[in-house]
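thought: fold this chain, then report.
action: predict
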Amino acid sequence: MRRELHCYWKLLLGLTCRIVGATALLLAANQVRANAQPAVPASQTAPPAASALDITGTWQGTLHIRETDQHPPIDLRLVVKISKTDAGALEALWYSIDQSPQSLPMATITFQNGVLKFKSSLIERSYEGKMSDDGKSIAGTWMEGTTPIVLPLERATKSTAWATDSSKHTVQFVTVEPGVKLEVLDWGGTGRPLVLLTGLGNDAHVFDGFAEKLTNKYHVYGITRRGFGASDSPPVSGDAYSANRLGDDVVAVIDKLGLEKPVLVGHSIAGEELSSIGSRFPARVAGLIYLDAGYPYALYDPTRGDFGLDNIALREKMTELSNAQDPSAIRAVIAEMLKTDLPQYEKDLVARQKELEGQPDIPNRPAPDKKDRRRISAEAILAGEQKYTDITSPVLAIFADPHNMGGGTPTDEMQKAAAARDAEFTEGQATAWERMVPTAKVIRIPNANHYVFKSNEAEVLKDVEEWVDGLK
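observation:
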Protein backbone atom coordinates (compact mmCIF):
# COMPACT_ATOMS: atom_id res chain seq x y z
CA MET A 1 0.00 0.00 0.00
CA ARG A 2 1.23 3.57 0.14
CA ARG A 3 3.93 4.10 2.73
CA GLU A 4 2.47 2.87 6.00
CA LEU A 5 4.51 0.48 8.14
CA HIS A 6 2.28 -2.53 7.87
CA CYS A 7 1.94 -5.30 10.49
CA TYR A 8 -0.41 -8.19 10.96
CA TRP A 9 -1.61 -7.12 14.40
CA LYS A 10 -4.91 -5.54 13.30
CA LEU A 11 -6.31 -9.00 13.98
CA LEU A 12 -6.01 -8.44 17.72
CA LEU A 13 -8.03 -5.22 18.02
CA GLY A 14 -10.97 -5.47 20.36
CA LEU A 15 -10.13 -9.01 21.47
CA THR A 16 -10.34 -10.51 24.95
CA CYS A 17 -9.10 -13.64 26.72
CA ARG A 18 -9.58 -15.51 30.00
CA ILE A 19 -7.24 -16.89 32.66
CA VAL A 20 -8.21 -19.96 34.70
CA GLY A 21 -7.20 -19.50 38.36
CA ALA A 22 -6.43 -22.07 41.03
CA THR A 23 -9.43 -23.86 42.55
CA ALA A 24 -10.86 -23.03 45.97
CA LEU A 25 -10.32 -26.65 47.01
CA LEU A 26 -6.57 -26.33 46.51
CA LEU A 27 -6.51 -23.07 48.45
CA ALA A 28 -8.36 -24.67 51.34
CA ALA A 29 -6.00 -27.63 51.40
CA ASN A 30 -3.01 -25.33 51.52
CA GLN A 31 -4.57 -23.41 54.44
CA VAL A 32 -5.14 -26.64 56.41
CA ARG A 33 -1.53 -27.67 55.85
CA ALA A 34 -0.28 -24.24 56.97
CA ASN A 35 -2.30 -24.39 60.17
CA ALA A 36 -0.88 -27.82 61.02
CA GLN A 37 2.76 -26.68 60.88
CA PRO A 38 4.69 -25.08 63.75
CA ALA A 39 5.52 -21.40 63.40
CA VAL A 40 8.80 -20.62 61.65
CA PRO A 41 10.52 -17.22 61.61
CA ALA A 42 9.55 -15.22 58.53
CA SER A 43 13.18 -14.87 57.52
CA GLN A 44 13.31 -18.63 56.98
CA THR A 45 10.02 -19.01 55.08
CA ALA A 46 9.57 -15.88 52.96
CA PRO A 47 10.65 -16.24 49.33
CA PRO A 48 12.90 -13.59 47.87
CA ALA A 49 11.11 -10.38 46.93
CA ALA A 50 10.12 -10.34 43.26
CA SER A 51 12.19 -7.23 42.62
CA ALA A 52 15.28 -9.16 43.74
CA LEU A 53 14.60 -11.99 41.28
CA ASP A 54 16.13 -12.07 37.81
CA ILE A 55 13.73 -11.03 35.06
CA THR A 56 16.12 -12.02 32.26
CA GLY A 57 15.36 -15.13 30.27
CA THR A 58 12.57 -16.33 28.02
CA TRP A 59 8.91 -15.81 28.90
CA GLN A 60 5.94 -17.15 26.97
CA GLY A 61 2.16 -17.02 27.03
CA THR A 62 -0.93 -17.40 24.86
CA LEU A 63 -3.45 -14.77 23.78
CA HIS A 64 -6.88 -16.42 23.49
CA ILE A 65 -8.64 -14.63 20.65
CA ARG A 66 -12.43 -14.68 20.72
CA GLU A 67 -14.48 -15.30 17.60
CA THR A 68 -15.56 -12.31 15.52
CA ASP A 69 -17.34 -11.86 12.20
CA GLN A 70 -13.87 -11.67 10.62
CA HIS A 71 -12.33 -14.91 11.96
CA PRO A 72 -12.93 -17.96 14.18
CA PRO A 73 -11.44 -18.27 17.70
CA ILE A 74 -7.65 -18.15 17.53
CA ASP A 75 -4.82 -18.74 19.98
CA LEU A 76 -1.64 -16.73 19.39
CA ARG A 77 1.53 -17.68 21.25
CA LEU A 78 3.84 -14.85 22.29
CA VAL A 79 7.49 -15.24 23.31
CA VAL A 80 9.43 -12.48 25.11
CA LYS A 81 13.21 -12.76 25.40
CA ILE A 82 14.79 -10.43 27.96
CA SER A 83 18.52 -9.89 28.40
CA LYS A 84 20.97 -7.29 29.69
CA THR A 85 23.38 -5.12 27.77
CA ASP A 86 27.05 -4.88 28.73
CA ALA A 87 26.11 -1.77 30.70
CA GLY A 88 23.49 -3.71 32.67
CA ALA A 89 20.41 -2.19 31.04
CA LEU A 90 17.48 -4.42 30.11
CA GLU A 91 16.66 -5.10 26.46
CA ALA A 92 14.13 -7.42 24.91
CA LEU A 93 12.62 -8.87 21.75
CA TRP A 94 9.15 -10.32 21.35
CA TYR A 95 7.71 -12.78 18.86
CA SER A 96 4.23 -13.79 17.73
CA ILE A 97 5.37 -17.23 16.64
CA ASP A 98 2.06 -18.36 15.15
CA GLN A 99 2.17 -15.41 12.75
CA SER A 100 5.87 -15.07 11.96
CA PRO A 101 9.27 -16.00 13.41
CA GLN A 102 10.33 -12.39 12.97
CA SER A 103 11.39 -10.70 16.19
CA LEU A 104 10.14 -7.25 17.15
CA PRO A 105 12.18 -4.94 19.38
CA MET A 106 11.05 -3.18 22.53
CA ALA A 107 11.14 0.60 22.66
CA THR A 108 11.32 0.58 26.46
CA ILE A 109 11.51 -2.07 29.17
CA THR A 110 11.68 -1.73 32.97
CA PHE A 111 11.51 -4.07 35.96
CA GLN A 112 10.98 -2.38 39.31
CA ASN A 113 9.47 -3.70 42.53
CA GLY A 114 8.54 -6.91 40.78
CA VAL A 115 6.60 -5.14 38.01
CA LEU A 116 7.61 -5.70 34.39
CA LYS A 117 6.67 -3.02 31.86
CA PHE A 118 7.56 -2.83 28.19
CA LYS A 119 6.46 -1.08 25.01
CA SER A 120 6.99 -2.31 21.48
CA SER A 121 8.69 -0.32 18.76
CA LEU A 122 6.94 0.65 15.49
CA ILE A 123 3.52 -0.63 16.54
CA GLU A 124 1.41 0.39 19.54
CA ARG A 125 1.70 -2.60 21.89
CA SER A 126 2.61 -2.64 25.59
CA TYR A 127 2.55 -4.94 28.62
CA GLU A 128 2.51 -4.61 32.38
CA GLY A 129 2.61 -7.50 34.82
CA LYS A 130 3.58 -8.52 38.34
CA MET A 131 6.10 -11.32 38.86
CA SER A 132 5.20 -14.09 41.27
CA ASP A 133 7.23 -14.53 44.44
CA ASP A 134 8.91 -17.65 43.08
CA GLY A 135 9.94 -15.84 39.86
CA LYS A 136 8.30 -18.43 37.61
CA SER A 137 5.29 -16.50 36.31
CA ILE A 138 3.95 -13.03 35.59
CA ALA A 139 0.30 -12.03 35.88
CA GLY A 140 -0.26 -9.12 33.53
CA THR A 141 -2.16 -7.34 30.78
CA TRP A 142 -1.27 -6.89 27.13
CA MET A 143 -2.41 -3.60 25.63
CA GLU A 144 -3.43 -3.71 21.99
CA GLY A 145 -3.51 0.03 21.43
CA THR A 146 -6.13 1.00 24.03
CA THR A 147 -7.62 -2.50 24.29
CA PRO A 148 -6.54 -4.55 27.34
CA ILE A 149 -6.04 -8.31 26.94
CA VAL A 150 -5.17 -10.44 29.98
CA LEU A 151 -1.90 -12.28 29.31
CA PRO A 152 -0.15 -14.47 31.90
CA LEU A 153 3.48 -15.28 31.12
CA GLU A 154 5.44 -18.32 32.28
CA ARG A 155 9.22 -18.55 32.51
CA ALA A 156 10.32 -20.97 29.80
CA THR A 157 12.70 -23.82 30.57
CA LYS A 158 14.79 -25.89 28.20
CA SER A 159 12.06 -28.50 28.04
CA THR A 160 9.07 -26.14 27.80
CA ALA A 161 10.41 -23.33 25.55
CA TRP A 162 8.53 -22.84 22.29
CA ALA A 163 10.59 -22.69 19.11
CA THR A 164 10.49 -19.23 17.56
CA ASP A 165 11.60 -20.45 14.13
CA SER A 166 10.67 -23.96 13.02
CA SER A 167 11.09 -23.31 9.30
CA LYS A 168 13.41 -25.62 7.39
CA HIS A 169 16.09 -23.28 6.11
CA THR A 170 19.76 -22.60 6.51
CA VAL A 171 21.15 -19.18 7.37
CA GLN A 172 24.28 -17.50 6.07
CA PHE A 173 25.60 -13.95 6.04
CA VAL A 174 26.77 -12.39 2.78
CA THR A 175 29.02 -9.32 2.61
CA VAL A 176 27.57 -6.80 0.15
CA GLU A 177 30.04 -4.01 0.86
CA PRO A 178 32.82 -3.50 3.43
CA GLY A 179 31.32 -3.69 6.90
CA VAL A 180 27.82 -4.68 5.75
CA LYS A 181 26.59 -8.27 5.88
CA LEU A 182 23.07 -9.38 5.05
CA GLU A 183 21.18 -12.37 6.39
CA VAL A 184 20.34 -14.82 3.60
CA LEU A 185 17.96 -17.75 4.10
CA ASP A 186 18.08 -20.85 1.92
CA TRP A 187 14.99 -23.07 1.98
CA GLY A 188 16.53 -25.47 -0.54
CA GLY A 189 14.72 -26.98 -3.48
CA THR A 190 15.72 -27.66 -7.07
CA GLY A 191 15.17 -25.84 -10.32
CA ARG A 192 15.22 -22.15 -11.18
CA PRO A 193 16.40 -19.90 -8.32
CA LEU A 194 13.78 -17.63 -6.70
CA VAL A 195 14.91 -14.79 -4.40
CA LEU A 196 12.33 -13.39 -1.97
CA LEU A 197 12.60 -9.76 -0.82
CA THR A 198 10.61 -8.39 2.10
CA GLY A 199 8.36 -5.44 2.83
CA LEU A 200 9.43 -2.56 5.04
CA GLY A 201 10.08 -3.61 8.63
CA ASN A 202 10.13 -7.35 7.91
CA ASP A 203 13.01 -9.79 7.72
CA ALA A 204 13.22 -12.78 5.37
CA HIS A 205 11.63 -15.06 7.97
CA VAL A 206 8.27 -13.49 7.08
CA PHE A 207 8.29 -15.87 4.08
CA ASP A 208 8.58 -19.03 6.18
CA GLY A 209 5.79 -21.37 5.12
CA PHE A 210 5.19 -19.62 1.81
CA ALA A 211 8.79 -20.24 0.71
CA GLU A 212 8.68 -23.90 1.67
CA LYS A 213 5.71 -24.46 -0.63
CA LEU A 214 7.79 -23.23 -3.59
CA THR A 215 10.71 -25.60 -3.05
CA ASN A 216 9.11 -28.49 -4.91
CA LYS A 217 9.79 -26.62 -8.17
CA TYR A 218 12.40 -23.94 -7.38
CA HIS A 219 15.47 -23.28 -5.25
CA VAL A 220 14.24 -20.59 -2.90
CA TYR A 221 16.28 -17.92 -1.09
CA GLY A 222 15.34 -14.91 1.02
CA ILE A 223 17.26 -11.74 1.86
CA THR A 224 16.87 -9.54 4.94
CA ARG A 225 17.70 -6.02 3.78
CA ARG A 226 20.17 -3.78 5.59
CA GLY A 227 18.86 -2.12 8.72
CA PHE A 228 16.54 -4.96 9.76
CA GLY A 229 16.59 -8.30 11.50
CA ALA A 230 19.98 -9.96 11.78
CA SER A 231 21.46 -7.94 8.89
CA ASP A 232 23.88 -5.10 9.56
CA SER A 233 22.70 -1.51 9.94
CA PRO A 234 25.24 0.89 8.46
CA PRO A 235 25.00 4.56 9.48
CA VAL A 236 22.41 6.67 7.70
CA SER A 237 24.51 8.89 5.46
CA GLY A 238 24.64 9.71 1.78
CA ASP A 239 22.91 7.04 -0.30
CA ALA A 240 23.41 4.23 2.24
CA TYR A 241 19.69 3.37 2.08
CA SER A 242 18.74 4.65 -1.37
CA ALA A 243 16.68 2.45 -3.68
CA ASN A 244 19.62 1.81 -5.99
CA ARG A 245 21.90 0.99 -3.05
CA LEU A 246 19.36 -1.59 -1.86
CA GLY A 247 19.16 -2.93 -5.40
CA ASP A 248 22.95 -3.20 -5.50
CA ASP A 249 22.79 -5.25 -2.29
CA VAL A 250 20.53 -7.78 -3.99
CA VAL A 251 22.85 -8.00 -7.01
CA ALA A 252 25.81 -8.53 -4.66
CA VAL A 253 24.04 -11.45 -2.98
CA ILE A 254 23.16 -12.94 -6.38
CA ASP A 255 26.83 -12.72 -7.36
CA LYS A 256 28.12 -14.21 -4.11
CA LEU A 257 25.71 -17.14 -4.33
CA GLY A 258 26.48 -17.66 -8.00
CA LEU A 259 22.83 -17.54 -9.06
CA GLU A 260 22.15 -17.60 -12.79
CA LYS A 261 19.26 -15.34 -13.85
CA PRO A 262 17.03 -15.78 -10.80
CA VAL A 263 13.45 -14.65 -10.53
CA LEU A 264 13.11 -11.88 -7.93
CA VAL A 265 9.93 -11.87 -5.83
CA GLY A 266 9.33 -8.74 -3.77
CA HIS A 267 6.63 -7.70 -1.31
CA SER A 268 5.58 -4.09 -0.68
CA ILE A 269 8.56 -1.67 -0.55
CA ALA A 270 10.75 -4.37 -2.16
CA GLY A 271 9.15 -3.24 -5.39
CA GLU A 272 11.76 -0.47 -5.53
CA GLU A 273 14.60 -3.00 -5.39
CA LEU A 274 12.98 -5.02 -8.17
CA SER A 275 12.54 -1.93 -10.34
CA SER A 276 16.06 -0.71 -9.60
CA ILE A 277 17.47 -3.99 -10.91
CA GLY A 278 14.92 -4.29 -13.72
CA SER A 279 15.80 -0.77 -14.92
CA ARG A 280 19.57 -0.98 -14.63
CA PHE A 281 20.44 -4.69 -14.93
CA PRO A 282 17.56 -6.41 -16.75
CA ALA A 283 19.85 -9.10 -18.15
CA ARG A 284 20.78 -10.25 -14.65
CA VAL A 285 17.30 -11.62 -13.88
CA ALA A 286 14.78 -13.87 -15.59
CA GLY A 287 11.82 -11.93 -14.27
CA LEU A 288 10.33 -9.78 -11.52
CA ILE A 289 7.28 -10.60 -9.38
CA TYR A 290 5.64 -7.76 -7.43
CA LEU A 291 3.50 -8.97 -4.50
CA ASP A 292 1.32 -5.91 -3.84
CA ALA A 293 4.57 -4.06 -4.49
CA GLY A 294 3.84 -2.14 -7.67
CA TYR A 295 3.25 1.27 -6.11
CA PRO A 296 4.89 4.59 -7.10
CA TYR A 297 8.24 3.66 -5.52
CA ALA A 298 8.31 0.80 -8.07
CA LEU A 299 6.69 2.52 -11.05
CA TYR A 300 6.27 6.30 -11.18
CA ASP A 301 3.40 7.44 -13.38
CA PRO A 302 4.04 11.06 -14.47
CA THR A 303 0.37 11.49 -15.33
CA ARG A 304 -0.63 10.83 -11.72
CA GLY A 305 2.42 12.00 -9.76
CA ASP A 306 3.14 11.02 -6.18
CA PHE A 307 3.37 13.28 -3.14
CA GLY A 308 6.34 11.47 -1.59
CA LEU A 309 8.46 11.01 -4.71
CA ASP A 310 7.70 14.50 -6.03
CA ASN A 311 8.64 15.92 -2.64
CA ILE A 312 12.01 14.14 -2.80
CA ALA A 313 12.60 15.36 -6.35
CA LEU A 314 11.71 18.95 -5.41
CA ARG A 315 14.11 18.89 -2.47
CA GLU A 316 16.87 17.67 -4.74
CA LYS A 317 16.14 20.49 -7.17
CA MET A 318 16.23 23.05 -4.33
CA THR A 319 19.63 21.70 -3.26
CA GLU A 320 20.83 21.91 -6.86
CA LEU A 321 19.57 25.49 -7.07
CA SER A 322 21.27 26.55 -3.85
CA ASN A 323 24.56 25.01 -5.01
CA ALA A 324 24.48 26.54 -8.50
CA GLN A 325 26.79 29.53 -8.99
CA ASP A 326 26.82 30.47 -12.65
CA PRO A 327 23.79 32.45 -13.86
CA SER A 328 23.24 30.04 -16.72
CA ALA A 329 23.10 27.07 -14.34
CA ILE A 330 20.72 28.88 -12.01
CA ARG A 331 18.44 29.84 -14.92
CA ALA A 332 18.38 26.24 -16.16
CA VAL A 333 17.36 24.83 -12.78
CA ILE A 334 14.67 27.48 -12.29
CA ALA A 335 13.28 26.87 -15.77
CA GLU A 336 13.01 23.12 -15.14
CA MET A 337 11.35 23.65 -11.76
CA LEU A 338 8.79 26.08 -13.22
CA LYS A 339 8.02 23.75 -16.12
CA THR A 340 7.83 20.40 -14.31
CA ASP A 341 8.51 20.13 -10.60
CA LEU A 342 6.43 22.97 -9.16
CA PRO A 343 3.25 22.39 -11.27
CA GLN A 344 3.30 18.69 -10.40
CA TYR A 345 3.88 19.35 -6.73
CA GLU A 346 1.02 21.84 -6.68
CA LYS A 347 -1.28 19.05 -7.92
CA ASP A 348 0.11 16.74 -5.21
CA LEU A 349 -0.59 19.35 -2.51
CA VAL A 350 -4.17 19.86 -3.68
CA ALA A 351 -4.75 16.10 -3.63
CA ARG A 352 -3.19 15.72 -0.19
CA GLN A 353 -5.26 18.63 1.17
CA LYS A 354 -8.43 16.94 -0.06
CA GLU A 355 -7.35 13.61 1.38
CA LEU A 356 -6.84 15.11 4.84
CA GLU A 357 -10.21 16.86 4.96
CA GLY A 358 -12.23 15.67 7.94
CA GLN A 359 -9.41 13.62 9.45
CA PRO A 360 -8.97 14.39 13.17
CA ASP A 361 -5.68 15.16 14.85
CA ILE A 362 -4.17 12.44 17.01
CA PRO A 363 -3.98 13.67 20.62
CA ASN A 364 -0.95 12.75 22.72
CA ARG A 365 0.87 11.30 19.76
CA PRO A 366 3.86 9.37 21.18
CA ALA A 367 7.28 10.72 20.29
CA PRO A 368 9.23 8.39 17.99
CA ASP A 369 12.08 6.41 19.51
CA LYS A 370 15.17 8.01 17.97
CA LYS A 371 17.30 5.02 19.00
CA ASP A 372 15.14 2.40 17.29
CA ARG A 373 17.31 1.19 14.44
CA ARG A 374 14.36 -0.24 12.51
CA ARG A 375 12.56 3.10 12.53
CA ILE A 376 15.76 4.93 11.59
CA SER A 377 16.38 2.53 8.71
CA ALA A 378 12.75 2.72 7.55
CA GLU A 379 12.82 6.51 7.45
CA ALA A 380 16.10 6.46 5.49
CA ILE A 381 14.62 4.01 2.97
CA LEU A 382 11.52 6.16 2.46
CA ALA A 383 13.74 9.20 1.98
CA GLY A 384 15.81 7.30 -0.59
CA GLU A 385 12.99 6.39 -2.95
CA GLN A 386 13.55 7.06 -6.64
CA LYS A 387 11.41 7.41 -9.75
CA TYR A 388 11.45 4.32 -12.00
CA THR A 389 9.65 4.58 -15.33
CA ASP A 390 11.53 2.26 -17.71
CA ILE A 391 11.38 -1.41 -16.69
CA THR A 392 12.17 -3.90 -19.43
CA SER A 393 12.37 -7.20 -17.54
CA PRO A 394 9.41 -9.61 -17.68
CA VAL A 395 7.00 -8.63 -14.89
CA LEU A 396 4.21 -10.27 -12.93
CA ALA A 397 2.43 -7.65 -10.82
CA ILE A 398 -0.09 -9.03 -8.32
CA PHE A 399 -2.29 -6.41 -6.66
CA ALA A 400 -4.67 -6.69 -3.72
CA ASP A 401 -7.27 -4.69 -5.62
CA PRO A 402 -9.23 -3.51 -3.76
CA HIS A 403 -7.59 -4.12 -0.40
CA ASN A 404 -9.31 -5.77 2.51
CA MET A 405 -9.19 -2.79 4.85
CA GLY A 406 -10.07 -4.84 7.94
CA GLY A 407 -12.98 -4.40 10.30
CA GLY A 408 -15.65 -5.48 7.80
CA THR A 409 -17.66 -3.20 5.54
CA PRO A 410 -16.91 0.51 6.13
CA THR A 411 -19.71 2.10 8.11
CA ASP A 412 -19.01 5.78 8.66
CA GLU A 413 -18.25 8.35 5.99
CA MET A 414 -14.56 8.59 6.89
CA GLN A 415 -14.05 4.84 6.52
CA LYS A 416 -15.92 4.82 3.24
CA ALA A 417 -13.82 7.70 1.93
CA ALA A 418 -10.58 5.97 2.94
CA ALA A 419 -11.67 2.74 1.23
CA ALA A 420 -12.64 4.65 -1.92
CA ARG A 421 -9.29 6.48 -2.03
CA ASP A 422 -7.39 3.23 -1.57
CA ALA A 423 -9.38 1.52 -4.32
CA GLU A 424 -8.81 4.42 -6.74
CA PHE A 425 -5.11 4.60 -5.90
CA THR A 426 -4.53 0.85 -6.23
CA GLU A 427 -6.45 0.48 -9.48
CA GLY A 428 -4.62 3.52 -10.86
CA GLN A 429 -1.28 1.85 -10.22
CA ALA A 430 -2.41 -1.47 -11.68
CA THR A 431 -3.55 0.34 -14.82
CA ALA A 432 -0.25 2.24 -15.00
CA TRP A 433 1.67 -1.04 -15.21
CA GLU A 434 -0.55 -2.21 -18.05
CA ARG A 435 -0.04 1.06 -19.88
CA MET A 436 3.64 1.76 -19.21
CA VAL A 437 5.28 -1.69 -19.07
CA PRO A 438 4.59 -3.84 -22.15
CA THR A 439 6.25 -6.87 -20.51
CA ALA A 440 3.92 -6.79 -17.48
CA LYS A 441 1.17 -9.24 -16.65
CA VAL A 442 -1.13 -7.71 -14.03
CA ILE A 443 -3.30 -9.84 -11.74
CA ARG A 444 -5.88 -8.32 -9.39
CA ILE A 445 -7.00 -10.28 -6.32
CA PRO A 446 -10.12 -8.62 -4.86
CA ASN A 447 -10.32 -8.05 -1.10
CA ALA A 448 -6.89 -9.51 -0.41
CA ASN A 449 -4.68 -8.32 2.43
CA HIS A 450 -1.57 -6.25 1.75
CA TYR A 451 0.33 -9.40 2.79
CA VAL A 452 -1.28 -11.08 -0.18
CA PHE A 453 1.06 -14.08 -0.05
CA LYS A 454 -0.43 -14.84 3.38
CA SER A 455 -4.09 -13.88 2.97
CA ASN A 456 -4.40 -15.55 -0.45
CA GLU A 457 -1.49 -17.98 -0.37
CA ALA A 458 -2.92 -20.71 -2.61
CA GLU A 459 -3.93 -18.26 -5.33
CA VAL A 460 -0.58 -16.46 -5.25
CA LEU A 461 1.36 -19.75 -5.39
CA LYS A 462 -0.66 -20.81 -8.42
CA ASP A 463 -0.14 -17.48 -10.19
CA VAL A 464 3.59 -17.45 -9.44
CA GLU A 465 4.17 -21.02 -10.62
CA GLU A 466 2.20 -20.59 -13.84
CA TRP A 467 4.03 -17.38 -14.71
CA VAL A 468 7.53 -18.57 -13.79
CA ASP A 469 7.06 -21.84 -15.68
CA GLY A 470 6.19 -19.79 -18.76
CA LEU A 471 9.47 -17.86 -18.74
CA LYS A 472 12.13 -18.69 -21.27
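thought: worth noting. The domain at 170-302+373-469 is CATH 3.40.50.1820 (Rossmann fold).
final: C-alpha coordinates above.
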